[in-house]
């Protein structure tokens, strides 16, 4: 891990001088851990005792519903701060599984260490509070976006906001639906000329979202 990269790309340390970060690490300590692909950093229901910062790699946050099906909640890449709101919560447990999808390098700050760093540096504290606030705003937007929309509308929004799509099962997991339900909607969109399905590959033919009837 290079401290200059940390202060440049990680939102928690942006605006903090590299020498200040080095001093905080030297004074309070930290852990830098390597995880192979398909490793769990945390399991749904476990107590959250540390803050994770993904330095390099890819991670999925997912949960298991009552039917035992996995739903991908969020995907993370380099310099993402993972689950900052849960660490200081009254009920500080992970609501999701945090699993690597590639080899990862992760910076780990335990709760006491993080609190000492936040107390020592006001900019870092502001960044942490902003990180939590931004996560809450994003979550609220997602709830408004998905809870009030049909599967067709959710799928169209998903396709229009991405350049590359995964396999149908990956999309179904992302939207939290069964694959047959997703396939049924895809077939409808295919017949309407909005998407093309070829050997399991999805191609979006119309880039503009359809407008609702007045």
Count of discrete alpha- or pi-helical segments spanning 4 or more residues: 8
Mean pLDDT, all residues: 87
Strand order of the largest sheet: 1-8-3-6
In angstroms, what separates the terminal alpha carbons? 54 Å
Shape: elongated
Class of secondary structure makeup: alpha+beta
Amount of helix:
40-55%
What's the architecture of the largest domain in CATH terms? Answer: Sandwich
CATH class of the largest domain: Mainly Beta
What is the topological layout?
Elements: H1 3-9, H2 18-28, E1 31-35, E2 40-42, E3 50-56, E4 59-64, E5 70-76, E6 80-82, H3 84-87, E7 97-100, E8 104-110, H4 111-120, H5 122-147, H6 151-160, H7 168-175, H8 179-191, E9 195-198, E10 201-204
Antiparallel strand pairs: 1-8, 2-7, 3-6, 3-8, 4-5, 4-7, 9-10
Describe this structure in words.
With 214 residues, this protein is α+β, with helices and mostly antiparallel strands. The chain folds into two domains: 3-145, Jelly Rolls (Sandwich), CATH 2.60.120.10; 149-204, Arc Repressor Mutant, subunit A. Helices cover 42% and strands 23% of the residues. The protein contains eight helices and ten strands. The protein has helices at 3-9, 18-28, 84-87, 111-120, 122-147, 151-160, 168-175, 179-191, and strands at residues 31-35, 40-42, 50-56, 59-64, 70-76, 80-82, 97-100, 104-110, 195-198, 201-204. The strands form three sheets. Strands 1-8-3-6 form a four-stranded antiparallel beta sheet. Strands 2-7-4-5 form a four-stranded antiparallel beta sheet. A two-stranded antiparallel sheet has the order 9-10. The model has no long low-confidence stretch (mean pLDDT 87).
């Amino acid at each position: 891990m290079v401290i200059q990269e940390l202060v440049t790309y990680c939102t928690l340390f942006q605006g903090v001088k590299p020498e200040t970060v080095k001093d905080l690490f030297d004074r309070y300590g930290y852990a830098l851990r390597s995880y192979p692909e398909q490793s769990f950093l945390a399991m749904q229901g476990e107590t959250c005792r540390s803050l994770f910062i993904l330095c390099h790699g890819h991670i999925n946050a997912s949960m298991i519903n009552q039917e035992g099906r996995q739903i991908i909640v969020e995907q993370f890449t380099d310099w993402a701060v993972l689950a900052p709101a849960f660490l200081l919560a009254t009920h500080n447990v992970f609501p999701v599984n945090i699993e690597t999808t590639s080899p990862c390098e992760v910076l780990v700050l335990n709760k006491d260490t993080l609190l000492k760093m936040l107390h020592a540096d006001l900019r870092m504290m502001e960044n942490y509070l902003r990180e939590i606030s931004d996560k809450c705003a994003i979550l609220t937007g997602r709830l408004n976006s998905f809870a009030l929309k049909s599967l067709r509308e959710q799928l169209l929004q998903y396709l229009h906001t991405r350049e590359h799509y995964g396999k149908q099962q990956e999309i179904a997991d992302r939207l939290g639906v069964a694959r047959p339900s997703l396939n049924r909607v895809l077939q409808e969109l295919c017949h309407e000329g909005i998407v093309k399905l070829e050997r399991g590959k999805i191609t979006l033919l119309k880039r503009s979202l359809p407008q609702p009837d007045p």
